[in-house]
Amino acid sequence: MKLNNYIGGSWQESEEANFTAVMNPANGKELAQVKLSTKEDVNLAVKAAKEAQKKWALVPAPKRADFLYEIGYLMKKKKEHLAQVLTKEMGKVIEEARGEVQEGIDMAFYMAGEGRRLFGETVPSELQDKFAMSVRAPIGVVGLITPWNFPVAIATWKSFPAIVAGNTFVWKPATETPMMAYEMALIFEEVGLPEGVANIVFGSGTEVGTAMIEHPDVRVISFTGSTETGRHVAETGGRHLKKVSLEMGGKNAVIVLEDADIDLAVEGILWSAFGTAGQRCTACSRVIVHKDVKKELEEKLLTAMEALTIGDGLDETVKVGPVINQKALEKIQRYVEIGKSEGATLLAGGNVLAEGEFAKGHYYEPTIFTDVKWNSRIAQEEIFGPVVSLIEVASMEEAIEVNNSVVYGLSSSIFSRDVNKVFQAQRDLDTGIVYVNAGTTGAEIHLPFGGTKGTGNGHRDSGVAALDVFTEWKSIYIDFSGKLQRAQIDVD
Length: 492
Known about the structure:
Elements: E1 2-3, E2 5-7, E3 10-12, E4 19-23, E5 30-35, H1 39-56, H2 61-77, H3 79-90, H4 94-114, E6 121-124, E7 130-138, E8 141-145, H5 153-164, E9 168-172, H6 179-191, E10 198-200, H7 205-214, E11 218-224, H8 227-239, E12 243-247, E13 252-256, H9 262-274, E14 284-290, H10 294-305, H11 326-341, E15 345-348, E16 352-353, E17 363-364, E18 367-370, H12 377-380, E19 387-393, H13 396-403, E20 408-409, E21 411-415, H14 419-428, E22 433-436, E23 452-453, H15 466-469, E24 471-479
Parallel strand pairs: 1-5, 8-9, 8-11, 9-10, 11-12, 13-14, 13-21, 14-19, 18-19, 21-22
Antiparallel strand pairs: 2-3, 4-5, 6-7, 7-24, 15-18, 16-17, 20-23
């Protein structure tokens, strides 16, 4: 199976182009071949998107929303098929894959609802016989660059608000997980989305991503990925005066206070740390625990970890799937060795699984360090794997200080039964998302998603806030006085 670009409503067959293999991280089997596109492919896609956007912007927003309803219904109908494809190409366990597809369905219906809102404001004018209001206006062609760890959810966070707002888009999915983009293109086709509204160009960030960012007709870039790459996207986009929305890394912590429900905290930590094999920007990679309950928490975590099953995510009994590729395995192992060298105590895990049923895949043991210093590398740098660091503190104030000590600010969590501490924490934790008595993952699509500091640049995916990325505010003044009135000057 060869995956070609979807441009202007048609598949761009190109047998002579360069292709690379799409591999199943669970067993090393080839799933497909995906095109490695060039700058010329990007130019073709942007041209199609630009031409389509002129007509698409004139379609009433409720009519644009109707397409999102149809996309949502079709995704719902194909939910199990989409989840199976997602697990095969990305590796996450099937229940998580179903959850991710559901997130895309939810986003379709939610953003379709915005087709009858897209609210602006009416305000009183300071002058007589004059009307003032603001409206949202589409921007034009937007570029979407999405990661491999959530190959459909994040794409819907970006593409659906862009569509309902009257924009067209060019989407570059991750080379590791292009099959979900292919499946979404089939859905766009089936619902009859007008040609050129959705365009998909496969390929590398260096070639395709850069061409999108530098293209003069791409007005917005919405990027999710590493902080290092995001910084480059911001720098390049800034030189071209583009609106750039970044959602990047995280070093998220669960705080467990002395009055916490420890059993509940253990559940939250395991789900947040080892779900998706730790390959979430919201994954828990630090546990900041009060000294009075540290020993109990460690013991219960170790016991609970024994029940974690590792393997191919298509197996319904498996709880931890593979990591994405060999490069990811090597990075995780490097950080485990760094943790040892820094003096942290390895409580469990710390090994690549490479024998027997794991031999052809990319598997890493769920790993926990304890007695980790708050300023050590494994407590400060994003590992993006199933590795957790336990950090001891003596008070809630110290816990919040440690939580806020990293360069990232995506998600944080606190387990406590003291309402006063909870309200103080939700105020003082410097992250874009805060959970109380839950882990660091589980965002819902009707609230903004994103973070502070090195996690982003102030924009948000999801929720109504996503519309701010894909619209411009237009202020409109209508003077029906029949004479020239000068604001500020002619006010009595």
